[in-house]
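Complex record, three chains
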Amino acid sequence: MSEFFMYIAELFAAPFFVRALIVGTLVSLCSSLLGVSLVLKRYSMIGTGLSNVSFGCVTVAVALNIAPLYISIPVVVASSFLLLRISDNSKIKGDSAIAMISSGAISIGVMAVYLTSGVTNDVCGYMFGSVFSLTQSDMVFSAALSVVVIIMFVIFYNRIFAVTFDENFARATGTNAGRYNAVIALLTASTIVVGMKMMGTLLISSLIIFPALTSMRLFKSFKIVVVCSGFLSVFCFFIGMALTVIFEAPAGASVVIAHIAFFLIFSAVSALKKIRKRSIEINE
Amino acid sequence: MSNNKSHSDVRGNEVQNAKKKQSEKINVIVFASLCVVLLVAVGVVFALTKTGNHSKPLETGDSDKEIINITEKLYVSWINEIYTSTDQYLGRTIKIEGMFAKEVLPQKTYYYVYRVGPGCCGNDGAMCGFEFTSGGEYPQENDWIEVVGTLEVYEENGNKFLTLSNSKITVKQERGLEVVGN
Amino acid sequence: MRVVTILMSLINCKDVSLAYDGNIVLSDVNFQLNSGDYLCVVGENGSGKSTLIKGLLRLKSPVSGEIVFSDGLYSSHIGYMPQQSAAQRDFPATVFEVVLSGRLNSRRGKPFYSKSDRQEVSEKLYDVGMEGLKKHSYQELSGGQQQRVLLARALCATKKLILLDEPVSGLDPVVTSEMYSLIQEVNKKDGITVIMVSHDLNAIKYSTHILHLGNTQLFFGKTAEYVETPLGKRFIGENGNV
């Protein structure tokens, strides 16, 4: 047992571990909150599209020896606006646009790597995430991002609800729905850029989608869904980290497995509730 | 749309219930906010102290400073950390376990303590570890050794290289993991 | 007996033309709406009804002419009841939360709803007969119940005028007539002016005025007159008996 505590102490002595915990918690929180709005507006695929664009940017940036954040953030933010506008005009076109942009970005990234240094560990890290290679600036950035997201969701909660539930009505009552959509796009893009380092391109969108979907299985009030998503996401992150640290499982995948487990649990509970309700009704 | 109660009755009840719920809600909100503030404060303090933000410049041979023990479970992450945030680790004493390798080149002989790190997408695993120098005797090729030395940087042909200097070598019988993933 | 010396219409449309995507889809709209009226806007698909709605809600500016609101009616104080999307039917929200969002425009800048907002919501829910279901999930309601909730939301956003876009589409006949009774009660008892855009012939029964659009204004006037016109007769004839 004492060996276990010694191990935990060693872990916390590693700066990269503490950074991983902090950035992970913050990114999980942000993505789950934003995810509620995105999922309900049927924009789930955008997470995937943006994470692939982020991959392209990061690999090109590294190939050119520029700090990745400087290229990723502007390009991914621009892409998010682009994707949202296309989705607005025609749903069908939106799907194809996402597919085109996604695969295009990945191939550009892989080409950039090939032309400069060949496939390396780094590419693996970008694809699947490397939770222990988060830097100080990642930490500062994710902290600033979380503050903004949390403020948004506390102060502008009612408007976010209105814009998510019924954009037409919100516009008619004088809310500038376009502005809120733009802010959500901006914050989502930023979360994905940071989250990509942690979870990997392939998995970051799950952090956006899963918490909301899981909470909606069981809870029917928007406020409770938002709060539950936040807690769930952070909790699943801790479980994922525990698996990584104890069993050396890959961090990104462990977190997603935790999410899947909770989704199944919540679905089961919801199904049981329905069965119970139905049997009560039958008995009356 | 028939209702037995009159409209004003319903509203009267509403107001009473609303008042009760209001004060309950306020209590919950205050409590929750205090919890959140506390957590955030703890987190901030933690972040600042544990992520090497405030490490003071170290004097070489500062024996009060902790030895950095490169654990087996997070081996690759530690090596990565030290190579990317080198400034924070220069001058620190580092303890590392791995295999011994010697590279004899015309101008100089290099000594390594390493393990095999993860490859990716079909690549073979790469050597992952440190160069080191020691005053004493060097072990046999592929021995499992523990090296405790001071992290230093030196320049050669215009490039910078890390090395553990003044290292103490211990040959160990029990071998650890030669191939590491994390 | 009150003598009204100045009668200002609530909404006055003068020679209004509206465009969509650069093309003019509605031209020469001229009508006046007074407080307490019940206006039914009819027309084929694509006749410009939704464009007119956008114009009235100030979401679109007319390319010519003007839409004048009387004092005391801001376009953001029109209670709008839009058509529902499929996504909304499955939305996780309580009935109370949905109707509460109707108080948004009165919160100008303040982030949180007040007690009076919540009281107003309870009252409006009572008015549409959904008071008992206010903690229920919106998803679990029937189509008719959801429409009533949306009506309550529209009523929360206004004291003067509601604008309903196909409020009975997809509802069965019994529920439909309940809805119409409800709207009529709102109009007569609370004095709220109603503009209803509808395909449904039955809506004409309750209205005081008709506006028939066909990319231009084909008719505006009292309902009694409308049913006598050839246009009116054809509309009624095509859609069944009143």
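Note: Chain A has 13 helices and no strands.
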